[in-house]
Amino acid sequence: MYLKSPSQPTERYAHQPYLPPDPNYFDYENRYRPAVSSPLYTAVDDPMSATYTPGIEEFLRQKQDLNRYKIEMLYTAMGVRSYISGQLLYRINYDQCTCRNLILSRGGEFFDRQRIDLENKILDLEAEKRREETAFFRDLSFLNKELRFAKIEALEEQHKQALCQNMEESI
Q1: 65 lies in which domain range?
Q2: Which residue of 73, 124, 134, 157 is 20 to 30 Å from 165, comparing CA positions?
Q3: How far, CA to CA in Å, does 106 sit from each of 33, 91, 117?
């Protein structure tokens, strides 16, 4: 089986129109910043335009904003890690296919030193693939743990804010 590189059209995708790359993917400074139209981004969230007033309500709002940003950053980190893992596994599979193609081009019945080296290379790539999958699982587990803590903290802040509002209403 031979995998074609992503730049070459395949029969499977030949009928789909070409879409030029989005320039936002190449904006390295603002790549992971939330979009202005994002529901998690408001004008108040911008530290340059924020006017901070003392008070428990403002403090609780700032804590909620901080928790929201933390959760958003964790989701972004999970997406980036997933993308990186997919790219690494694709390259490993591509290298394995290249080695298999070299073996098949030399003929399947001969066992010489070069074929043994290529077979060992395929086995090494398979071990590298397993290491990447293990590292991906470990990283994703850590990020999920952090996400759980951040969501629990966000819920606690919501409860505190609701408690403060109920206290104000009863006074």
Answers
A1: 54-170
A2: 73
A3: 51, 23, 13
Rounded CA separation 26/34 (Å): 15
Would you state the pLDDT for residue 91?
94
Q: For residue 33, give the nearest of 20, 23, 46 by alpha carbon.
A: 46
* pLDDT tens-digit readout, 43-68: 445 555 555 456 777 787 888 889 89
Give the tokens for residue 28: 């390295």
Residue 166 placed within a domain: yes
For the chain, give the number of residues. Answer: 171
Segment 64-76 shows an average pLDDT of 91
Q: Do the beta carbons of residue 103 and residue 118 sit within 8 Å?
A: yes
- The answer, as to whether pTM is greater than 0.70, is no
Instruction: Dig out the tokens for 50 from the structure.
Output: 């924020």
Is 30 contained in some domain? Answer: no
Please, is 96 exposed, middle or buried when counting C-beta atoms within 10 Å of its C-beta (0-12, 13-18, 19+)? buried
What pLDDT does residue 9 have?
47
Task: Identify whether 117 is part of a domain.
Answer: yes
